[in-house]
Amino acid sequence: MTANTNQPNPHSFPPRFTWGVATSSYQIEGAAHEDGRSPSIWDTFCATPGKVLNGDNGDVACDHYHRLDSDLDLIASVGVNAYRFSVAWPRVVPEGRGTPNPAGLDFYSRLVDGLLARGITPWLTLYHWDLPQVLQDAGGWPKRDTALALGDYAAVVTDALGDRVKHWITINEPWVAAFMGYGNGVHAPGHTDLAESFAASHHLLLAHGLALQAIRANVPGAKAGITLNLAAAYPATGSPEDQAAAWRQDGFANRWYLDPVFGRGYPQDMVERLGAASPQAQGLVRGSDLETIGAPTDFLGVNMYSRSVVADAPGEGFLDVRQLRVEGSEYTGFDWEVAPQSLTDLMLRLQRDYNPPALYITENGATYPDTVAEDGTVHDEERTRYFQQHLAALGAAITGGAKMAGYFAWSLMDNFEWAEGYDKRFGIVHVDFETQARTLKASGRWYRDFLARAQEGQPA
Ligand code: FCB
């Protein structure tokens, strides 16, 4: 672990490395009922008692929709050369399919222009979980039509912004959207059905493939890929049982998405384990689906926060696996283990096993119970240390041969953290949700200074 307790070396990253911060539409925009936006599954979920902590919702969030220009200045003040955001589908195609909403598209057009004017490269995510409620009413992700609708929506967005946006992420974290949305019910729409969740996983992947086709058709010179949430899985002991458990965990969380995206189809061991719940047994994998999903991408985006350590546990869920808390390890406010070495391990494994043309960390960060000091700032040393350790681990991955091309910190600012409402703060900027005041935290100052050194001497 010693390498990761070191400070990251700003000069160990390649020239023109992408340095960014990331956000998503529902988490920051607010203006939930304005300018023709229709409700998303998250509006509905938030309005359902008991689903979101403190009954919080995204009606106002960071009020980013109304504070676009000052937020763009804020992004620029951190010194990043890229900004990852997502487009709200219910804002630009309120009926889910059909007529685009000019006011919705105009917001993103101004966002993109504002970034370009500040010398910041826009990284656009098409789907970061805010499915139009009308499409959920028609069955949502367990239904194939939802994937087709996403393809149409992708055509609308690429048509409108493809002249200026060249970096495209199709889907954010299909595992979370499928499993937490339809399997364990922690996220919208809150269903708890294993078969539905695996049907959803197939259609989210199909949607990725269809979005890719729209991007290729409409955006000359685009760089396109998907963002997966991946966590390296380690066995609790060296026993063959625990090692097999770690492989199953890897199959569920990582390979189920990696294998089809890299053109290999679904991992057979998982298809067998799922039995009747698999998309295959449900008759959902049709014709050329696997070719559509496995079409070449330009990069793989990885959201990395932690790792999993698992033991064999017959009878626990469909995986027969138990997640363990690691004695002596540090944990963040989300109870996620701080495991920077696993970032290095994961990147090297991805490069070796899947050989992506480029790898980006599209999210990495930590939540802690921040307090605002009397001087008005947040002295979030733990978060700073988290970033330092993970950037050092990223440097080690580069040295080891991983084709790392960029890193986005999650998140630009504190925001609506899904089922946890406003309780879990991930920002490098503190947001006072009463006044909407933004204050760069100590971690944000550290990141800014680090980026200044990493980009020294490079053309802006
Ligand atoms: C990821 C999500 C992102 C944020 C972070 C903490 O799973 O993509 O929106 O909630 O976790």
UniProtKB/TrEMBL annotation:
GO terms for biological process: cellulose catabolic process. It is an enzyme of class 3 (hydrolase). The active site is at 173 (proton donor), 363 (nucleophile). Pathway: Glycan metabolism; cellulose degradation. It holds the Pfam family Glyco_hydro_1. The keyword Hydrolase applies. Substrate binds at residues 27, 128, 172, 305, 410, 417-418. GO terms for cellular component: cytosol. PROSITE patterns: GLYCOSYL_HYDROL_F1_2 (PS00653). Keywords: Carbohydrate metabolism, Cellulose degradation, Glycosidase, Hydrolase, Polysaccharide degradation. It catalyses: Hydrolysis of terminal, non-reducing beta-D-glucosyl residues with release of beta-D-glucose. Its EC number is 3.2.1.21. The keyword Magnesium does not apply. One of its GO terms (molecular function) is beta-glucosidase activity. It comes from the Bacteria. InterPro entries: GH, GH_1_N_CS, Glyco_hydro_1, Glyco_hydro_1_beta-glucosidase. Belongs to the glycosyl hydrolase 1 family. This is Beta-glucosidase. It comes from Deinococcus radiopugnans ATCC 19172.
